[in-house]
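ugh finaly. both done.
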Amino acid sequence: MNKSSKGLGFYLLIILGVVCLTFFLNNLWMDNNDYRTYEDYRKDMEDGNIVIVEIQKNAEVPTGILEVTLKNGEVKDLYVSDTSKEASLLYGEGIPYREGDVLRESWFVTYLVPSLIILAVVFFLFTMMNNQMLAAAER
């Protein structure tokens, strides 16, 4: 195995480590205040534990997130496939709710992040090719 292929394995190992660290930290910082099942949400509704529900629709209508505030101050999230059905159910039960605007990704995530990733990959490739050329020239 020549020296340049050993360097490539090192770079790939570093990239793999960064990706694993990113996933680990993302899972560590996420809050786990989601309802486990739809039945738990309905039980809270029937028991009268719900104070208010905020409905956040996704760009893929009619899906969305229900942000449920309970009487004890706890806030739980529930991902639903039909927000309009849930709104009519809440209205029928007499539970107050608010409907927010459709959540959309920002231009930063849509345009800038992919461009920066492409630039980083191109920079990495040029650096790696330059190192290989220098190693070949030294022989």
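ok and the 2nd:
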Amino acid sequence: MSEPKNNAAPIIENNKFTLDGMIDYLKKLSFNEVVECKRAVEIVYKEKQHQYVQSQLGNVKDLVTAGDIPVEAIAEFFELSSQKRSKRGKSGKSEKSLPKYKEQGTDNTWVGRGPRPDWLKKHLDQGRKLEEFLIDKNDSA
């Protein structure tokens, strides 16, 4: 890497790379050169991420070994985390919610999340109350 010219930020200051300097330098590169830099950064990022995770796991192991954290607490934490993830299933998406509101005489329903559907907005604009469309738990949707 060459030193930037003009008023550009220095790439290295006090033996450390500066973000502004690196950005100025990258702006001077061709698209293909930036793509290669991105690939290199992604490789180094994954390596650093792995090293960081291993380091943190080592810290947890040290705390457990020293008796500062009971093994049961770690097991309980991972059990709870696993349960939270399993509720969403393999796809990571939450289970489909049951409808909470229904338009009488039609199949139009709404779970009560996200934007209100047009059919409901129309009725509310006509002065009807949201509660009128609540599905009774004893009724089928």
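summary for the 2nd one i guess: Strands lie at 12-13, 16-17, 101-102, 109-110.
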